[in-house]
Amino acid sequence: MYKSKANCLFGNKSLINYSNNISGMKIPFLILIGLLLTSCSKKEVSSLMINSPDKKIQVHFDITNTKPVYSVTFEGKKIINGSKLGLEFKHQEPLTGNFEVTEVVRNTVDKKWEQVWGEKKEVRNHYNEALIRLKEKSGNKRKLNIVFRVFDDGLGFSYEIPKQDTLDSLYITNEVTEFGLSDNYTTWFIPANYESYEALYQNKLASEVESANTPITFESADKSVFVSIHEANLTDYAGMTLKKQPGSDLNFEADLVPWPDGVKVKTKTPMSTPWRTIQISNSAEKLIESTLILNLNEPNKLKDVSWVKPCKYIGVWWGMHLGVHTWTLGEQHGATTKRMKEYIDFASENNIDAVLAEGWSTGWEKWGKPKAFDFVTPYEDFDLKEIVAHAKKKDVKIMGHHETGGDAQYYDQQIKEAFELYKSMGINYLKTGYAGPIQPSKQYHHGQYMVNHYRKVVETAARYRLNVNAHEPIKPTGIRRTYPNMMSREGARGMEWNGWSEGNPPEHHTILPFTRILAGPLDYTPGIFDLLYKNAGKRVKWNNLDKGNSGINTTLSKQLALYVVFYSPLQMASDLIKNYKDQPAFQFIRDVPVDWENTKVLNAQIGDYVTIVRKDINSDDWYLGAITDENERELNVKLDFLDHKKEFIAERYKDTKDSHWKNNPYPLQILKQKVSYNDTLSIKLAAGGGQAIRFKAVQ
Question: Is pLDDT at 479 greater than 60 in this prediction?
Fold first, then answer.
């Protein structure tokens, strides 16, 4: 870190480097120091620039009429026009103007770190940083710091309020963070919602978007600029949505999710906000490969991570959404001792690591009532000890389940006892759910109260060696780096919607990798083989969204490809196990890993198609997933990602010429061929289809 005002302008370059000449004139060293210090007067330092390491991204910071403003350029093109920064408070004057710069501290970091699990093992953390210290010119002369970190794949900025006599308890009523777009980009978004992210993505011009949950993704008309706005390290703060500024076509501003009294954030100094992130690239492929969100989070805080392991799992979950099983006790109850043993046996025989026990504990019959769920008392037809013993004998893990119905307050009261039960049973996977209005009353799923609740669950789970899969969650913001037991989340319109709504259209899958999944792993629960419900049995409607849907809206090959395209360290084979028996295509699910050494995106167009390859962390094998929207396509894929010293057998699971997502989703061809790194494959995708490939190294 650089303390002098000279270094505030010249970064990490030594003063001695400038002692030789300026404009060709030799200058004595002591005189030079005086010149440099003069050049760092408050007037001069009120405007500065921070470059990315490759110098393609430039962040410009200015004090304009005493107000802090930033703008962003990429490869010489303006991306973000001059946009305001600051915070507003209840009972205090805002920190939005009347500022002067007192110091700029520059720093450069270039380090590598390893993920406990992830899309790639090694991550490079390379950025240029500027810590800008601001102070009010008059009045109480309060202080505010703004930190910028600029990477080759984008930037993040955060506010810091230091401890000071004039500021202690803070009630933030508004964050004056603007994102003034420079162009009317094509935009992929879901409208802002304080309770849920489970919506279909819309595709409109930015000028037509009124509000959005993040991530929100933009594409220039000439496809030379791709931008995604989100946040990183959401800690003890309200979730951020975006809203259009009144009277503006292209200016968005932060809109924080409020407490019941309207205050957005309740905190004390010293404090810092989450990072506001802007991922930038010149291709859709590079958006997916970005590690910006992870790099803006703190390193792993868990000393022992030997128990933090990705896994594949199965369970009776899909039967409930189909309406052939129930969560509640009765003739159709899904989570019974007998059925759990059947699933455990199937998992043991098919390289599946764990079985989800959803609907095992009492309380579902009291849905919507206060203090409904009991997380330690099983239904009478579910023998927890017998099931755990059977699973241990078969070397299969049990994934426990806690559905709160949104009653976070009551869950807090039971969490210690519930986690102790799982620890005593040797259970170290947990799926949580918050499908209902939050209690305490009038709290939102995405407000500060729940952000802190979700974090408390993760931190407490770590003490009990529990890996968490959260449904109805707060959105991912990279916390998995700090707490790698926070493994996966829902937070999107997932597979379940196909059970009782009009379903997810084919293009939905080609949008998620460039929007929601940019934030972090998604528990989408792929792997449905009974695509037209021919083998579902007697179904009943169980919610008012049920449209009598007739299918999954993908081909069988696409269901396999989603295991590669949609990243999650917890991947579910979600269909009823009877639909996997005697199915050759199930071999791909047996084989596909859930932890990767490397990931590459080979081709992509948002909303149309994407092809992703990932290398198994435990072998030389690679896996490919390619998917399309409702249009059939042919993609040419170079195999230069393969080890050039080895030969591979490509085991291909592909659509046939007769495959079609709507009326003929089942046809699938499995073929094997020898390939090497200098080959190119032609990948034909049916309408709504996909292709999954295992590249098995020849030993």
Answer: yes
Phi, psi of 637 (to 5 degrees): -125, 120
241 in Cβ contact with 211 (< 8 Å): yes
Q: Are residue 286 and residue 305 in the same domain, yes or no?
A: no
Work out the pLDDT band at 43, boundaries 50, 70, 90.
very low
Map tokens 């007037």 to a residue: 43
Q: What value does the mean pLDDT take over residues 488-506?
A: 96
Query: How confident is residue 507, by pLDDT bands cut at 50, 70 and 90?
Result: very high
Residue 103 lies in a domain: no
Question: Measuring CA to CA, which residue among 669, 684, 672, 681 is closest to residue 642?
Answer: 681
> Residue 512, class by beta-carbon neighbours within 10 Å (0-12 exposed, 13-18 middle, 19+ buried)?
buried
Q: Provide the phi-psi class of 590: left if phi over 0, else alpha when psi is between -120 and 50, else beta.
A: alpha
**304 and 445 fall within a common domain:** yes
In order of 112, 292, 515, 558, 571, the CA distances from 600 in angstroms are 18, 16, 17, 19, 19
Q: Is 513 found in the same domain as 458?
A: no
Phi, psi values for residue 69, rounded to 5°? -140, 140
Distance CA 514, CA 371 (A): 39
Q: Judge contact between 641 and 624, C-beta under 8 A.
A: no
Question: Which residues, 6+ apart, have CB-to-CB distance to 202 below 8 Å?
Answer: 188, 189, 190, 191, 209
Residue 39 has pLDDT above 70, yes or no: no
Six token digits for residue 167: 């500021």
Q: Among 138, 353, 289, which Cα is nearest to 641's?
A: 289
What is the set of active-site residues? 496
> CATH no. for residue 498?
3.20.20.70
CB 234 within 8 A of CB 447: no
646 vs 648: CA distance, rounded Å: 7
DSSP state of 396: -
Contact (Cβ atoms closer than 8 angstroms) between residue 494 and residue 321: no
Supply the DSSP symbol for 70.
E
DSSP, collapsed to helix, strand or coil, labels residue 469 as strand
Closest CA to 296 of 274, 280, 315: 274
- Coil, strand, or helix at residue 650? strand
Q: How far is CA 258 from CA 174, 194, 233, 328, 578, in A?
A: 10, 9, 19, 34, 46
Collapsing DSSP to helix, strand or coil, 464 comes out as coil
Q: Are residues 147 and 206 in the same domain?
A: yes
- Model confidence at 550, pLDDT cuts 50, 70, 90, reads confident
Quote the CA–CA distance of 567 and 563 in Å, as a whole number.
7
Domain that holds residue 362: 299-432+440-491
What DSSP designation does 120 have? -
What is the predicted pLDDT for the residue at 28?
A: 40
**Nearest to residue 664, comparing CAs of 631, 685, 683, 688?**
688
324-358 residues labelled b (16+ CB within 10 A) or e (exposed): bbbbbbeeebbbbbebbbebbbbbbebebbbbbbb
Give the C-alpha separation, 493 to 524, whole Å. 8
- 3-state SS record for 547-590: CCCCCCCCCHHHHHHHHHHCCCCEEECCCCHHHCCCCCCHHHHH
- 2 has pLDDT over 50: no
CA–CA–CA angle 145, 147, 151 (5° rounding): 175
> Structural domain tally of the chain?
4
- Kindly tell me the burial class for residue 28, based on how many C-beta atoms sit within 10 Å of its own C-beta (0-12, 13-18, 19 or more): exposed
